[in-house]
Amino acid sequence: MSAPRRLRRDPRGEKAATAVTGGRRPRFDLGAEARGAAATGPSGRPRRDPRGEADRQRIPGGARLRMDRAHRGGASGPGQVVAEASAPAQRLRTIAAPAFLVGAVIETSAGRPTPHARQVLGAARLLADGHPELGEGAVVAFTVADAGDLGPVGADRVLPLGDLITGDYDPEGLAAVLATAAETLGLRHLVFAETADGGDLARRVAARLGEGLFAGAESLTATTVTRAARARRTERRAAPPRLLTLAADAVAPHAGPLHEARSLAAADAGLGHAPEVTRGIRAARRIAADPAAVSLAEAEFVVSAGNGISDFAAFRDLVAALGATPGASRVVCDAGLMPRSAQVGASGTVLDAACYFALGIAGAPQHLQGVAGCEHVVAVNTDLHAAMIERAGLAIVADAQAVMPALLAALAAEQAAAGRDREAAE
């Protein structure tokens, strides 16, 4: 059998096809893809056009040449929103008939689980998956307020308890409900956050069940839980008990497959009605703090001004409209435009906020250290390559001075629309 015949190249024909007419010397267009000619080399592989690629990445405007190396929007221009690419779809893990259950008590903020609550779910997931000899374990998330979708953070079942307690603050009633659920569901473990509310609730549940509590766990595996003891001179180590509270940052949040987060009816947990309980607190309600008076260390939402802000009256109006706590970079505080207590960064206040909104801040290393613990970062800056833009989960490449009035106008329009809807409903 004869070997297949190879096509013979025609170098002269290839050169003539890319020749550019005119001029004193021969010139050749080596990237002829835009004119419909075959953009392939002799081997049939696509031919790159480096100059065309650079032109498509070039960002117009500015005093110097800037390129969008991240390829997040082609030739991005000023004012374009630059967001991270969407994550690939996660694999769904369904546990239809779990061999045992692990409970996690979830604290929420603004309709989402807090970062500490995500770690509690990560600990519950670790305890549920760490005993393959027992079979597949499932995680039951107990919520009082709306926590959103808990499937991505590791919950297999979600049991809302808000209708079984009195008001939005009822520690005695909530402890009675959790103790009943732990017994009827046969929970192998029940994990709380070691916070002011979570720690108090865990101790109430332990007292009602008559069981010991391992408080403030600083490390956790499927077989061992540890914490410091005797003024941190020794370490207490034990097998994970039924009830335990988790210190902050002791366990990483769940980062595995998506879980089902199926809603569980209260009747399925033996909670057809609220358990009888003698309440020591007659009435209680939560009073929202004034965001402007909250310290940066305790703020949930911080809006900061940087060197790119000159209209501080509009900045304060925007902070008030967003219901946020004002902050600033060191440059602004050194200039006396904002008080020193508003300085964000390693030499100011290190934040633990859920959201940080940076206006006109380039992002010095000390400032980035101050926002390292923030869950979400939004940045507005004219420089696409600013460090704060790179740190942000959502970035707007534009002048912050132009963005502020646009945001104020959008917020005013939204409030007006909400007012019209309320009037129509009435």
TrEMBL record:
Keyword Ribosomal protein: no
Basic and acidic residues: compositionally biased ranges: 46-58
GO biological process, one term: fatty acid beta-oxidation using acyl-CoA dehydrogenase
Domain Electron transfer flavoprotein alpha/beta-subunit N-terminal: 102-275
Keyword Transport in record: yes
Region of interest: Disordered: 1-80
GO molecular function: electron transfer activity; flavin adenine dinucleotide binding
Keywords: Electron transport, Transport
InterPro entries assigned to the protein according to its UniProt record, in alphabetical order: DHS-like_NAD/FAD-binding_dom, ETF_a/b_N, ETF_a/FixB, ETF_asu_C, Rossmann-like_a/b/a_fold
Alphabetical list of SMART domains matching this protein: ETF
Superkingdom to which the source organism belongs: Bacteria
Family affiliation: Belongs to the ETF alpha-subunit/FixB family.
UniProt protein name: Electron transfer flavoprotein subunit alpha/FixB family protein
Originating organism: Methylobrevis albus
